[in-house]
Please model this.
Amino acid sequence: MGKHYAVFGSPIAHSLSPRIHAAFAKQIGVDLDYVAIEASLDDFAAALAAFAARGGNGGNVTLPLKEAAFVLCATTSERAHRAGAVNTLIRDGGNWHGDNTDGTGLIRDLTDRHGLDLRARRTLLLGAGGAARGVAPALLDAGIDQLFVVNRTTERADALVDAMGEPGRVHARYLGDVAALGEFDLIINATSAVRGGELPALPRSLVGRRTAAVDLSYGEVAIPFLAWARANGCHNAVDGLGMLVEQAAESFALWHGVRPETDAVFNELSGRNASLVTAD
Model:
């Protein structure tokens, strides 16, 4: 009998995760089913408990549930603990073990697929929610220089900065002060504000000669930020599709003990990117 997996989030009907994991399972020869489960913050705990009662073996977690998933796990990996957010669930006896593969997925996509050297890059991280928390520790480990976290709610930016434990290297700033921050070598959009059709006002002064702009979303949601990046002369403009595939491969490896090849899956999905909606 196959094993049971799911991705939880809201909205979730758009999710590519079932398609990605089906492709990985076919490649490796694993028998599994993987479904998308709509769950808001209010009903996530109940939805996860019901999934476990039906024999669920593992799951992925997307917006807006990654920090809530961390709280629901009995144990977590070191990288999930550093992030304070979970995107991968593993059933361990009668409890959930939480991990976070977002950061690993992002770094693998940027360095291996796009050939970016992240070392010593002065970095601006827009957003301080679960997605931002998942990638911040991995960016620091990858050797970036200073990391500036900007968020509409400064308390969340402060909390993320405090969690990183490197006050001389990681800094919180008001969104309204972003124009005074100067040039960045790497700008990462981890906000969900664009879903409401509004991209935070970003000045041209943020862009330098080698600036790479990365949106953790893909498809329609990523268009405004990537359009801004191209219009303002960013050297690279990258969406989150590759990260999505790479973090899924890391989750798959945690569940099944083997990491699938990702290029064929990425290439297939990138051909359909214009019709996609948002990243997991």
Q: What stands out?
A: The chain has two domains: 3-101+244-275, 103-241. Residues 241-256 form the longest helix (16 residues).
